[in-house]
Amino acid sequence: MKHQNQSLRNLLLAAMFLAIGLVLPFFTGQIKEIGNMHLPVFLCALICGWQYGTAVGFIMPLLRFALFSMPRMPTALAMAFEMATYAFVAGFLYSRARWQCTRMLYRSLIIAMIAGRIVWAAAMIVLLGLSGGAFTWQMFISGAFLNAIPGIILQLVLIPAIMVALDRAKLVPFRRSEENPHTHREETI
Known about the structure:
The protein is mainly alpha-helical. It is 72% helix and 0% strand. It contains seven helices and no strands. It starts with a helix and ends in a 21-residue tail after the last helix.
C-alpha cells in the first residue's frame, strides 16, 4: 500500500511539474536564456525520481510546441532529448548517492548540465543535418554555454535552495544514512 501511495504521489507531482513547466515561460516573459522549463524538470527528477523526470523532460517541450508553438521545431525536439538527459542524469546520480546532500546535489546538477548540452548538440547536428543546415562549433558554444550562463546560475542557486527548504520542512528529506536503498535490499519475511 505504501508503494502505491508513493507512486500516486510521484505521478501527481510529475503532472504538477509538467504544468509548471508549461506556464512558467509566460511568467518569465519567454526569456530563453534563463531556461525556464529546466527548473521543473530538474526538480521533478530530484523529488520524484529519474523515471518521472525523464518522462516530463521529454514531453514538456513537445507539448509546449503543440499547444503554444514555442519552442519552434527543430529546437523543441532537441530540447526534448536535452531535458530528458538532464532529468535522467541528475535524478539517477542523486538517487544512487550514498548521502543526499547539497554537495551531491551540485555534482548531479553539473554533470547533468554537461551531459544535457552534449545531447542537445548531437540532436541539433542530426536535426539540422536532415534539413540541410549545419550546426557549427560556434553555435554550440553560444547556445550551450555563453547564452545559457544566466540560466545555469539561476538553476545552480534556486534548485539547491528549494531542495534545502524542502529538507528543512521535512517534505523531501535528504538521505543521510550510509545505506543506499538501491544497492542494499533487506530481506522481509
